[in-house]
Design goal:
heterodimer, A: 496 residues, 9-stranded mixed sheet, two-stranded antiparallel ribbon, B: Chloramphenicol Acetyltransferase, Chloramphenicol Acetyltransferase, 6-stranded mixed sheet, globular
């Protein structure tokens, strides 16, 4: 075994070198400006006030010149301010907390599976193994219709679930923000697998008696990353419509999508998907600047659908017996990694500090010109963000991202704990994770948050938020009654 | 079982599970005592009928919701049975839940009760024995059946391994109390196993096999009592007048204070059964009563099990003598003996208690009519035992609360091999217990 002690001391030295380098490059402008300013000040002091007045008089300004230059300055300033994109603020959001009566402990899930799939002990075994390693806890919830043996997924039950989830989240949002239903200008609802007529957005408009000139959208079929797609859409709309409020509702309705067959690749979603939903209020009104929680900085969307393998990796189809289910292919992780790389390549230059970008550029040039065998430099995203919200798609997704982005356990804690407490709630999981970070009191003013979501297609979408004001630990919200128990240690394999 | 055309009386059966609302915790285990294990082949079936006023505005969702809170206290009932490495069963409290069954019936409750066929009540209590997969078998089944008149029946199947009839009744009454808002969930307290019964027994006595429980052939993982003949149940009411007449007949005019209605009735039934069985008359009987120290919050098999031996011929005996034998302070309390016998083999052997001898169970104070919905007591409630051994069992139950001075004061349920039942009915008629009008 090679001695490790000398390496340690050298890595400490390296750490200081790195820190020094980062400080130098990130503040290069300030560092160059300071000597220049110092120089000018010394010159001015040396010259003395009388000399400066003489210098000023010698410049011979006349009225026309002064008027033109000031007009030019005002014109440029106006063009600049008008063309600047409007700031989009996230005023507040509310997550749906399912009642304890919907709770599904492991043992109940396994027993029901055993009774429903009685002809297929192998499938039951498979589900048991998935559940043991899933990273889910004993408090995740399924809608009432799925609690029956066998489940009774009628359209009425699906609507019932949609109503409970969406209306609870909206009521909670109204209470938190003081928003009046008549003040909603834009409504976007996203739910991937349940798309009735009239749409879920129409259902919301009907329930809350929203205005007749509301701009409503319903996104379906876009997978777990649809939440960020909705945010992107809301942002674009808020650029066009001044002084507006937009409400985004992200949810996934589980009732109609319980797979009743025994094809293994399709049984996975049954084990992981759980009830959940979130309602978010976005605004571009100046008045909201003071109470908004976050400001939207970037949204980056990457679509790998052009690649056939990526397109087919999450595919809804009929199995051999004609039962419809969502089939997950074996290369899901690899494809997710590829999509992430694509997304990072676009988002990196937007968010990374100059030091990281320079290093990346240098390694890139080095690889192209000098030696292709150099390891590609993975930029340190921990420099760009304080918090990470990785879509809780499953334990494997979080592990993969933690490895790829070299994140510590604390960075992915929000994702792991949201997966444990709520399961995979699809597009709303990002909001449960944000809520976790707030509940832990870690959200400070100026913190930058990166939300990453993957979805069928295959898509990788990111959103970058900046915290607008330090958020006090909330007394309500989905984590209010259990935050003290978290973080929990989640064993590799849970003994059922 | 039930004839096929009657099968469709209760339809639209939907199964689901209801567990504790609160997470009990990982690796919470409830150890089963020897007495619990001795009762594992027996099940209690209880039915409660409620009129429409009691359930007006009550939905199944609400009932289930309240059950979630009630089960926070009774998390043991929501666990599943596993075997340790030595083969001894224990309960893993994994919050799996009780099985909740919903059904519909096109008859009114009155029409149903008029049918008078006891076997039909199997349709109102969804019952499955524990096993063959122990860890996927619920110990408790609850069935709510909606009748045409708007009333309901609540059927409970309770595995005796969890506790005796008094515990089962406490469990369902607790649900009623939560419904009425009389109870609120407290913090989670994991109940310790019930303390061993206090009476210090003579070790030589303990070593002997108990009289009231016997070992049966190994049943493996399917916990069903093997009977050598088909067992049938029938029940009849006793009016206040009948009880009074009987009391006078047995105790004389001075009214022996030591003999309660339970003992008098059981004495008569004992003699009738002895007459039916002729040469094989039961000399030893088992009597089960409520333990005065019974803990209302923890389900347990704490009922007093005593063995009573008659050293004389039962068929010719004086009813007074028989009744005195059955009295409360007579008979050997066999609980410790049964416990010791089961523990000798570390709980791996299979025993039965009910039906080892002719068993009399006093459920007068089981609180059958304490389950209230919206302040209304049940119209009618009764319990029966599933898995009784060949010698049979007699249950003495309270009758429905009524304002009439006469009527249905007590209910007697008798489970015996079917070939003895007809002869027994005529014997009971002769003794005056069974009135002619009650026979079909």
């Amino acid at each position: 075994m090679p001695p490790t002690l000398p390496d340690f001391s050298s890595s400490v030295k390296l750490k200081y070198v790195k820190l020094g380098y980062q400080y130098l490059v990130n503040h290069i402008l300030t560092l160059t400006l300071i000597p220049v300013m110092a120089g000018i000040l010394v010159e001015v002091l040396r010259l003395g006030p009388k000399e400066i007045v003489n210098l000023w008089n010698s410049l011979h300004f006349d009225l026309v010149q002064i008027l033109c230059s000031s007009f030019l300055i005002i014109f440029i300033a106006t063009v600049y301010f008008m063309s600047k994109p409007r700031s989009i603020y996230l005023v507040d959001y509310a997550c749906y907390k399912p009642p304890v009566t919907c709770r599904v402990p492991f043992a109940t899930f396994m027993e029901h599976s055993r009774l429903i799939l009685s002809n297929n002990p192998k499938s039951v075994e498979f589900q048991m193994r998935i559940l043991e390693r899933s990273g889910l806890g004993e408090e995740t919830c399924l809608p009432p219709a799925i609690h029956y043996i066998p489940p009774t997924p009628t359209m009425e039950a699906a609507r019932g679930e949609a109503e409970i989830v969406i209306f609870s989240a909206m009521d909670s949002l109204f209470k938190k923000t003081g928003l009046k239903p008549k003040d909603i200008d834009i409504l976007i609802v996203n739910c991937s697998l349940f798309s009735p007529t009239p749409s879920l957005s129409a259902m919301v408009i009907n329930k809350y008696k929203l205005r007749s000139n509301i701009k409503s959208f319903n996104l379906s079929g876009m997978g777990c990353s649809a939440g960020l797609i909705s945010i992107d859409l809301a942002r674009d709309l808020l650029q066009v419509h001044p002084n507006s409020n937009a409400v985004v509702v992200s949810t996934e309705i589980i009732t109609p999508n319980y797979y009743k067959g025994n094809e293994r690749a399709m049984l996975l979603p049954n084990c992981l998907f759980r009830m959940g939903g979130a309602a978010i209020l976005l605004s571009n009104r100046r008045s909201e600047r003071w109470r908004a929680k976050y400001r939207l900085v970037h949204v980056v969307r990457t679509h790998k659908g052009a690649d056939d393998k990526a397109y087919r990796c999450v595919f809804e189809e009929e199995d051999k017996e004609g039962k419809v289910g969502i089939s997950l292919s074996k290369d899901l992780m690899a494809i997710a990694g590829e999509a992430l790389k694509s997304n990072i390549t676009t988002i990196g230059p937007l968010v990374l500090p100059a030091s990281e970008q320079l290093l990346f550029l240098l390694t890139l040039i080095g690889r192209k010109i000098f030696n292709p065998k150099w390891k590609p430099y993975i930029p340190d995203f921990k420099q760009a963000f304080e918090h990470f919200c990785i879509h809780a798609g499953g334990r494997a997704v979080i592990d993969e991202l933690q490895k790829n982005l070299q994140l510590s356990a604390e960075h992915v804690e929000a994702s792991r704990m949201a997966l444990h407490r709520f399961g995979n709630t699809s597009s709303s999981s990002l909001w449960y994770e944000m809520s976790y970070i707030e509940a832990k009191g870690r959200m400070k003013r100026g913190d930058r948050i990166w939300q990453i979501a993957f979805g069928s297609g295959f898509k990788c979408n990111s959103a970058v938020w900046k915290c607008n004001r330090t958020i006090k630990t909330p007394t309500d919200g989905p984590w209010a009654d259990c935050i003290d128990r978290y973080p929990v240690h989640i064993p590799e394999v849970v003994k059922l | 079982m039930v004839p096929p055309e009657q099968d469709r009386l209760v339809y639209n059966i939907r199964l689901s599970s209801v567990g504790p609302g609160r997470v009990t915790g990982t690796d919470v285990v409830h150890e089963l005592s020897g007495l619990d294990l001795a009762m594992k082949l027996h099940y209690l079936k209880g039915v409660y009928f409620f009129g429409s006023q009691a359930v007006e505005g009550l939905t199944i969702t609400r009932m289930k919701e309240i059950m979630f809170f009630s089960l926070n206290d009774y998390y043991i009932t929501s666990g599943r049975i596993k075997r340790s490495e030595s083969g001894r069963p224990y309960i893993k409290c994994n919050d799996c839940g009780v099985r909740f069954v919903e059904g519909l019936c096109d008859k009114t409750i009155d029409e149903w009760l008029e049918m008078g066929d006891d076997s039909l009540d199997n349709l109102l209590v969804y019952h499955r024995a524990i096993g063959p997969e122990l860890s996927f078998s619920p110990s408790v089944y609850l069935q709510v059946t909606w009748f045409k008149c708007g009333g309901i029946s609540v059927g409970m199947s309770w595995a005796h391994i969890l506790g005796d009839a008094f515990s089962a009744s406490d469990f369902i009454n607790s649900w009623g109390q939560y419904m009425a808002g009389l109870k609120l969930n407290g913090p989670l307290t994991l109940s310790k196993s019930v303390a061993k019964i206090e009476k210090p027994d003579d070790p030589t006595q303990l070593a002997k096999e108990p009289l009231s429980a016997k070992q049966v052939n190994p049943v493996g993982d399917l916990w069903v009592t093997a009977n050598n003949c088909k067992m049938e149940t029938f029940s009849f009411f006793l009016s206040k007048l009948q009880l009074l007449t009987l009391h006078v007949k047995i105790c004389g005019e001075d009214g022996g204070k030591r003999i309660s209605p339970f003992e008098s009735v059981c004495a008569v039934i004992w003699q009738c059964i002895a007459r039916v069985k002729e040469a094989y008359e039961p000399q030893i009987v088992t009597v089960c009563r409520k333990d005065p120290y019974h803990d209302i919050n923890v389900p347990s098999n704490s009922q007093i099990i005593s063995a009573v031996k008659a050293n004389f011929s039962v068929t010719e005996a004086d009813l007074n003598k028989l009744a005195m034998l059955l009295a409360e302070d007579q008979g050997l309390d066999e609980r410790n003996k049964i416990e010791a016998a089961v523990e000798k083999e570390n709980g791996v052997t299979d025993y039965i208690m009910y039906g080892t001898n002719l068993t009399f169970v006093n459920l007068e104070d089981a609180g059958l009519y304490e389950l209230e919905l919206k302040g209304h007591k049940p119209m009618f409630a009764y319990y029966s035992i599933q898995g009784v051994g060949d010698e049979g069992a007699v249950l003495f139950l309270p009758g429905p609360p009524s304002t009439e001075s006469d009527g249905k004061e007590r209910l007697v349920t008798i489970t015996l091999p079917e070939d003895q039942l007809l002869k027994l009915k005529s014997e009971l008629k002769r003794s005056g217990l069974l009135l002619a009008t009650e026979l079909e």
